[in-house]
């Protein structure tokens, strides 16, 4: 009888301790969750076949990833003109592009769906010598799961994503050289992936659609209500336009509005929420 009582008390005590720890353990804040997502995104992408995409550069030239797969090592740099870290890394990217110019290497800047005049002025002011495209409607950002700027993706001559970096890259030689060397060797030896093999891999994986032209239109987003609407009315869109978040329709604005719908900001003031969202959508 005494043994049964001791066992029962032990079970109750153990349950109480576990419950206490579950409630007492600090839950991750919104910023911590965002940082974890940013850190885990490379693990989701590195080692996977890059999805096909199409884009039009500012000079009018059309680009389709499948046409250059196996012929060049390709770097995609997702940026925004209002993003400080994006500006900081641009001189390094220009330097590296000029270093590799003429070889089997292509760097492409992909702007976050800003007005063309704004992007052209930025390209001229920053001395960007590599091709730049504007991500109309945010299709390419969605295709590569880009949630913050800058984000840089390196696709090897095998069609595989080898680098997926969220945040500023300070040394392009360290970030890219090993993959460029390997890619250049495979291209020269004829062992790089062919266009047909690349497209066949995408078809088998069910991801053969070319983004930029064939992607379905976004469903109409539900209107913000309550505190989410109040914050959106107060916050300027970080895309660099003169509109409030509520008024703006760019990809960044849509992503932030989605965060306002989903996340719990009860522990933060409106000013703290706005500061947190601005920090999240311009990675340092």
Give a quick set of tags describing it.
284 residues; alpha/beta; Glutaredoxin; 2 domains; five-stranded mixed sheet; two-stranded antiparallel ribbon; elongated
Question: Any chance you could write out the topology, listing elements then pairs?
Answer:
Layout: H1 2-24, H2 30-45, E1 54-56, E2 62-64, H3 65-68, E3 73-79, H4 84-100, E4 105-111, H5 116-126, E5 132-134, H6 139-143, E6 151-155, E7 161-166, H7 172-189, H8 195-205, H9 226-234, H10 251-262, H11 270-280
Parallel strand pairs: 3-4, 4-5
Antiparallel strand pairs: 1-2, 3-6, 6-7
Question: What would you note in describing this structure?
Answer:
With 284 residues, this protein is α/β, with parallel strands linked by helices. It folds into 2 domains: 34-205, Glutaredoxin; 226-280. 48% of the residues lie in helices and 12% in strands. The chain contains 11 helices and 7 strands. The chain has helices at residues 2-24, 30-45, 65-68, 84-100, 116-126, 139-143, 172-189, 195-205, 226-234, 251-262, 270-280; strands at residues 54-56, 62-64, 73-79, 105-111, 132-134, 151-155, 161-166. Strands 5-4-3-6-7 form a 5-stranded mixed β-sheet. A two-stranded antiparallel sheet has the order 1-2. Helix 4 (84-100) links the parallel strand 3 and strand 4. The chain is elongated and about 60 Å long. The termini are far apart.
């Amino acid at each position: 009888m005494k043994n049964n009582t001791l066992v029962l008390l032990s079970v109750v005590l153990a349950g109480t301790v576990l419950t206490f720890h579950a409630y007492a353990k600090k839950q991750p804040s919104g910023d911590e969750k965002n940082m974890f997502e940013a850190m885990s995104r490379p693990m989701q992408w590195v080692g996977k076949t890059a999805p096909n995409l199409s884009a039009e550069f500012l000079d009018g030239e059309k680009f389709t990833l499948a046409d250059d797969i196996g012929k060049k090592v390709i770097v995609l740099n997702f940026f925004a003109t209002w993003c400080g870290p994006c500006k900081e890394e641009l001189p390094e990217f220009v330097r590296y592009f000029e270093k590799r110019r003429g070889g089997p290497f292509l760097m492409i800047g992909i702007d976050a769906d800003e007005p063309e005049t704004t992007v052209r002025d930025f390209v001229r002011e920053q001395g960007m010598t590599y091709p730049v495209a504007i991500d109309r409607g945010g299709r390419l950002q969605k295709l590569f799961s880009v949630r913050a700027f800058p984000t840089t993706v390196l696709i090897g001559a095998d069609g595989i994503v080898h680098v997926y970096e969220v945040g500023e890259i300070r040394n392009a030689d360290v970030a890219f050289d090993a993959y460029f060397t390997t890619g250049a060797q495979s291209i020269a030896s004829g062992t790089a992936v062919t266009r047909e093999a690349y497209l066949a891999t995408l078809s088998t994986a069910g991801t053969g659609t070319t983004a930029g032209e064939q992607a379905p239109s976004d469903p109409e987003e539900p209107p913000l209500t309550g505190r989410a609407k109040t914050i959106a009315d107060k916050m300027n869109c970080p895309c660099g336009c003169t509109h409030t978040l509520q008024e703006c329709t760019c990809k960044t604005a849509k992503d932030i509005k989605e965060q306002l719908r989903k996340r719990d900001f009860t522990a933060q003031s409106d000013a703290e929420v706005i500061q947190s969202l601005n920090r999240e959508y311009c990675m340092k």
